[in-house]
Design a protein that fits this description.
Length: 318
């Protein structure tokens, strides 16, 4: 059965590629209508197209374009009050003749609200009454009877998401803007948490000088409980790091002299991260080099803290 899955997915992919080849510069008008919209983008559609319209609305809303979904049937029973002059309507319908959707078109036209259609029927009522028509027609659905919207709704979703991406790029939408709309969950945490929010600093930061004895290093690591200690020179600059692993390797070679200086066993020039960086950048560095802790430095390469992989896990960054 897995071959059926592969075949049907490839059919959907092929449908998207064919529709993409038919996209013309006229779609720029749709982008401009949404970009210049002084009100909100209202998406609408019935049935499966309605679910896709909801998702497209959510994508626009999460990328800085005020957007809501209007159910056409509910619109006929009072919800047309959601629409006002200054809005833009993005309507999805494969046939373009869905009764409930066609019924709200007069209200949209009477209020001079621009109508953008994503439809598979360029001769439909919806297409003929829209300012911009995006051709979403396909040769066949992927289910054998051609009755259940499958490839057609996949194409609709792809067009809607592509429109959202085009508008956000036209707006100059940046990653910090994205963070404002996603304050919760791992996405928001990755974009909002800085190193300084999570690091161990002050008396919680394990630090010894390069001429400290191994005895002092062990005491510092034990007292701070992070399994490592940053090593600094007399000017407070980062020069190395000693971990539990470094200690085990040192002792495994038969070394027992606890007066050995930290500089003799430290890992020099360790990976570190600047205090103003995002916490996710520390995570990326840890993953790239397969390490679990990073010294935190300021612009003068002075050690101001340390961050452990467990801190990132606890904060929900991972």
């Amino acid at each position: 059965m897995h071959e059926i899955i592969k075949k049907e997915m490839l059919l959907s992919s092929d449908a998207i590629k064919k529709v993409a080849k038919r996209i013309t510069p006229d779609i720029n008008r749709a982008i401009n209508y949404i970009y210049d919209c002084p009100g909100k983008l209202v998406t609408t559609g019935m049935g499966k197209s309605g679910f896709i319209a909801r998702k497209i609305s959510a994508t626009f809303a999460s990328t800085g374009t005020t957007s809501i979904y209007l159910h056409p049937a509910e619109g006929l029973h009072g919800d047309l009050g959601l629409l006002s002059k200054g809005d833009v309507v993005l309507a999805l319908s494969n046939s373009g003749n869905t009764q409930e959707l066609v019924a709200i078109i007069p209200f949209v036209k009477f209020n001079q609200i621009p109508l953008i259609a994503i439809t598979g029927n360029l001769e439909s009522v919806l297409a003929k009454n829209s300012e911009v028509v995006i051709d979403a027609s396909i040769e066949q659905e992927i289910e054998p009877f051609g009755l259940v919207p499958t490839a057609s709704t996949t194409v609709q979703l792809t067009i809607g998401d592509a429109l959202a991406v085009a508008v956000l790029q036209k707006k100059g939408f940046q990653i910090h803007d994205f963070a404002r709309f996603h304050p919760g969950g791992s996405i928001g945490k990755k974009l909002l948490y800085k190193i300084s929010d999570l690091m161990h600093s002050g008396p919680l930061n394990p630090v010894v000088t390069e001429d400290s004895s191994l005895q002092q290093v062990i005491e510092e690591i034990s007292n701070k409980g992070l399994g490592c200690s940053s090593i600094i020179n007399q000017q407070g600059k980062l020069v190395g790091i000693i971990t539990d692993g470094d200690l085990r390797r040192f002792f495994s070679h038969g070394n027992i002299d606890l007066s050995t200086s930290a500089s003799k066993i430290m890992s020099s020039n360790p990976k570190c991260v600047h205090i103003e960086k995002l916490a996710v950048e520390a995570l990326n560095l840890m993953e790239k080099h397969s390490i679990t802790m990073l010294p935190i430095t300021n612009s003068h390469n002075e050690v101001v803290g340390i961050i452990h992989l467990h801190d990132l896990i606890k904060a929900g960054i991972i």
